[in-house]
């Protein structure tokens, strides 16, 4: 810490930061009306970064509240109670495994051997210690330095996506499953395809990548995966060209088109109308092919009966 650097203590509300969302959903300063400014204090990059992270935590909580309240989505804990994911409000997912603390509280353990109860109690205490540490990790007011923390079965973006796929997406009753994968998310999706190729092909209708950093050569994606991506994926990349203009690619996978912006972080937002159009067309094509298949099957059955 620099000698003149202020304490790493920040407000815990948007109002405390003097920011609010306007009617268009844009984050603006309450007094000046200006967008968020990262360099609130010159020559104090570390302090500015911590301020940015603290504000980000508040916005994350705000967005989750909107998803639950306005979109009627359901929030479910990942292993050990760390983090959350948001699911469809319909009952088309399997009940997740309870955290160890929930299992502990749901049974008095009176019928269990003393050794087993002692082992469970030790596990519960260790889990609580990890959760307490995680709260410090999440809140810059409680811990001045960010410390990486391994989350069981979710230690990397690739692991996390496979975990969510195995525990939630595969059990969904949704007829159409779509992916929007931004930047490193594209790499994680390709890894998911490598690990769960048949399941992904059977479940996923279409994939929209936005400025994805995947590389089918470095990730050693097979020929069948590359062929599937050419038919079912599209990558909206940062470019000075107008939205949806074809962009040349050196990789033999999915088509690349312009996102209508040169700013990496805006590619998802700028390409959103095209992404939904892409998904609609893919869904309609899937429905048409299914109807055609059912018609052929019906004709075949009638012919056999004759």
Number of strands: 8
Shape: globular
End-to-end separation: 86 Å
Order of helices and strands: EEHEEHHHEHHEHEEH
As residue ranges, the low-confidence spans are 90-109, 133-146, 294-306
Give the number of helices.
Answer: 8
Rg, alpha carbons: 24 Å
Major sheet: size, sense and barrel closure?
A: 4 strands, parallel
Summarize model confidence as the mean pLDDT.
78
Relative strand content: 5-15%
- Main-sheet strand order equals 5-6-7-8
Class by SSE composition: alpha/beta
Helix content: 40-55%
Key features?
globular; 8 strands; disordered C terminus; two-stranded antiparallel ribbon; alpha/beta; 306 residues; 4-stranded parallel sheet
Report on this model:
This protein is α/β, with parallel strands linked by helices. It has eight helices and eight strands, in the order ββαββαααβααβαββα. It has helices spanning 45-69, 100-105, 114-138, 157-167, 184-195, 197-203, 223-232, 267-305; strands at residues 19-21, 27-29, 74-77, 84-87, 177-182, 204-210, 233-237, 256-258. The strands form three sheets. A four-stranded parallel β-sheet has the order 5-6-7-8, sandwiched between helices. Strands 1-2 form a two-stranded antiparallel ribbon. The protein has a two-stranded antiparallel ribbon with strand order 3-4. α4 crosses α5 (184-195) and α5 (184-195) crosses α6 (197-203). The chain is globular. The termini are far apart.
């Amino acid at each position: 810490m620099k000698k003149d650097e202020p304490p790493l203590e920040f407000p815990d509300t948007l109002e405390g930061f003097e920011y609010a969302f306007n009617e268009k959903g844009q984050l603006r300063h309450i007094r000046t009306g200006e967008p968020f400014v990262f360099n609130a204090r010159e020559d104090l990059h570390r302090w500015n970064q911590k301020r940015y992270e603290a504000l980000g935590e508040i916005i994350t909580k705000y967005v989750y509240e909107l998803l639950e309240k306005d979109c009627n989505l359901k929030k479910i804990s990942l292993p050990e109670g760390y983090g959350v994911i948001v699911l469809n409000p319909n009952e088309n997912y399997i009940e997740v495994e309870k955290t160890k603390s929930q299992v502990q509280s749901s049974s008095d353990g009176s019928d269990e051997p003393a050794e087993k109860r002692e082992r469970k109690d030790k596990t519960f205490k260790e889990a609580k210690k990890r959760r307490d540490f995680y709260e410090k990790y999440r809140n810059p007011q409680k811990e001045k330095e960010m410390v990486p923390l391994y989350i069981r079965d979710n230690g990397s973006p690739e692991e996390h996506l496979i975990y969510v796929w195995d525990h939630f997406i595969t059990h969904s009753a949704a007829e159409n499953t779509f992916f929007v994968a931004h930047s490193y998310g594209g790499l994680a999706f390709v890894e998911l395809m490598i690990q769960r190729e048949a399941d992904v092909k059977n479940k996923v209708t279409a994939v929209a990548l936005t400025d994805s950093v995947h590389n089918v050569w470095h990730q050693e994606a097979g020929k069948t995966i590359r062929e599937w991506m050419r038919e079912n994926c599209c990558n909206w990349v940062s470019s000075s060209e107008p939205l949806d203009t074809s962009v040349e690619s050196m990789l033999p996978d999915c088509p690349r088109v312009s996102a209508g912006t040169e700013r990496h972080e805006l590619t998802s937002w700028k390409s959103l109308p095209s992404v939904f159009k892409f998904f609609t067309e893919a869904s309609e094509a899937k429905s048409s092919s299914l109807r055609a298949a059912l018609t052929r099957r019906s004709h075949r059955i009638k012919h056999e009966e004759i």
